Amino acid sequence: MKNYSIIVLPLARWEEYRTLRLEALQVEPYAFGKSYEEEVENSSEVWQNKLTQNSDLGFYLFAESGGKLIGMIGCDYETKLKIRHIATLKAYYVSINARSQGIGRVLLEVSLKRIKKIQKIHKIRLSVNVLQTKAIALYKKFGFEQVGYFKDELFVEGKYLDQIMMEKFL
Question: Are 75 and 115 spatial neighbours (Cβ–Cβ below 8 Å)?
Answer without folding.
Answer: yes
